[in-house]
Predict the structure.
Amino acid sequence: MSNFHVDRLIDLIIHNEVTPAVNQVETHPFCQQSQSAKFMQENNVQIESWGPFAEGRNDLFQNEVLVSIAGKYKRSVAQVVLRWLIQREVVVIPKSVHKERIIENFNVFDFELSQADMEQIATLDTKQSVFFSHNDPEIVKWIGTRKLDI
Ligand SMILES: NC(=O)c1ccc[n+]([C@@H]2O[C@H](COP(=O)([O-])OP(=O)(O)OC[C@H]3O[C@@H](n4cnc5c(N)ncnc54)[C@H](OP(=O)(O)O)[C@@H]3O)[C@@H](O)[C@H]2O)c1
């Protein structure tokens, strides 16, 4: 599933025989989805992050907290964000069109963020989308009725 927030998700689960395996929702340091992630875990749905870098919005790559943590581990901000998601057991598929960044984004399995650093990143949560709300009926209508070039 994609963008099924918890009310829609539980509706789907209780009225169907098959529980969705994965639900992809906007998840990054500014929109952490903590309660939704807990709900999905309790209902055997794997949370997956889309927009793990907030597509660079809110100056994510220059964020002071993230830059400082990255310096400490001699890693990039992108790697810190990916590591933070993985340690929260959030599946993540970042996007890059640059080979060196794709390689960089894979190299996150040989270090671990401390609990203190995880908690510091938790303070960046605004509990809001940096794009638009999938709970807004006008947005849902726009997404559901626009013509796609595919
Ligand atoms: N289900 C949905 O509604 C939904 C919505 C949006 C996205 N998605 C999916 O989520 C995945 C990723 O999301 P996204 O592309 O929207 O956003 P994202 O991964 O948060 O951000 C991608 C941006 O980060 C840059 N970037 C990637 N790696 C970097 C690095 N190591 N250092 C610096 N910059 C880096 C990329 O630039 P370059 O490409 O120039 O390197 C690109 O501008 C995609 O597979 C996408 O299809 C799903």
Observations:
- The longest helix spans residues 77-87.
- The CA atoms of residues 141 and 147 lie 12 Å apart.
- The chain has one domain: 6-145.
